[in-house]
Known about the structure:
Layout (H helix, E strand, L loop, with lengths): L1 E6 L12 H20 L5 E4 L11 H16 L4 E3 L15 H7 L4 E2 L3 E2 L5 E2 L10 E4 L2 E4 L8 H13 L7 E6 L15 H9 L4 E5 L5 E3 L3 E3 L16 E7 L6 E7 L9 E7 L6 H14 L9 E7 L1 E2 L8 H12 L3 E6 L2 E2 L14 H14 L8 H16 L4 H13 L10
Parallel strand pairs: 1-2, 2-3, 3-4, 8-9, 9-10, 10-12, 15-16, 16-18, 17-19
Antiparallel strand pairs: 1-13, 5-6, 7-8, 11-12, 13-14
Helix pairs in contact: 1-2, 4-5, 6-7, 8-9, 9-10
Amino acid sequence: MLKFLHLGDIHLGNNQYQNDDRMRDFFYALHAVIRRYAIAEKVDFVLVAGDLFDRRNIEPRVLTQATLIFKELRDAGIPVYAIEGNHDRSGPHDGVSWLRYLSDWDWFHLLEPEHDEDGRMTLQPWDGRRGGYIEHGGVRIIGSKWYGSSTASVIGPLSEAIAALPPCPAQILLFHAGLEGYIDSYSGGLSHHQMLPLKEAGITYLALGHIHKRYEEGGWIYNPGSTESCNVAEFAEERGAYLVEVDPETGAHQARHIHHSKFGAQRPFQRLRFDVTPHSTPEAVLAALDGELAASREAFDDRPVVELTLTGVLGFKRHELELPRVEALVHKHLEPLLARIRYDAVPAEYAVAPGVSVGTDRKQLEREIMRDLVSRDARYGPEAERFSQILISLKSRALAGDPAADIAEFVAQSFAQPSAAPVVEA
Length: 426
């Protein structure tokens, strides 16, 4: 039996909320899982299924973080096999990504397919510098990359390239793509049925990345989730890594998910909501909030990231409530690493119309409102559902702090094929 560690969506260099402590948290999470579940468990190899880095252009300190991790693995005699994700791939004019740079300097093996003279996808064996697959102790590890909006159309050619390889009972494919149905705001994911040609071609373990929560399907598809929370909403999701034992002779495997809480102390998040409706003045809101925050204080091992959402209907003009004073109260009572204030309360004239239940799901209400607004424009009305979903996805990405360049690329992909569903990058 061989043992390996499956990681994805590490996002080194994520300067979340422009806070250096949060950037270091991403490094600490990776360092902990490598020490506890790669080196201490004496795995045979480590897999990284894309998004090692948070962005294409990384700072020197982020490169240092990566090389420190890979040096520890090299010193322990543990090789790393990786692919590029949407966040760390090379740009259209760059030519070479930082993953290619690290691979060329033998810190790990970057696996990716090639194309022959006729444009057909091929998988070449690792030649010491490049290749689409590598054999390790009788297990074949195959690489792909991020294909974006063309992911579904790549499954066929990739399956054919895998089927053309010499037989091997145990084959792992690294693939940066998401399955549909696991995140509400994610559109453009693949179905299990669409993935089946890969299994029919001989893949026994599909090592996914891209979606930041853990899921698995069919006893052969595994997505570990991110090693750290890339936004406040992800904190409650189950994330982590897979520790896997595989039989090279049969391909049979046992995959154990390691919950992110097992990595060691992770940055706590505290999400609070405060209804302003009962309070008729800004001073009354602040006084009531002062008391509620004092009562909501929790004991944390580390300073938390706090998100406070103001909800309800305002009895005064929106600008009269000074958000710096709200944030000051959060710091006074909760002593957070940083505080984020979301102002979702609305003036009375924009409150939900009579007859709409106050218990209506907020996401569903947002979808309905957005779809109604889009449908009013004759140019987009026939596809109101699709365009409203694009707008909601754009909002989610902006709130998550995604780089402007990634948001612009998402817009370009979404509108490239008018009849296709939008692709949302995690």
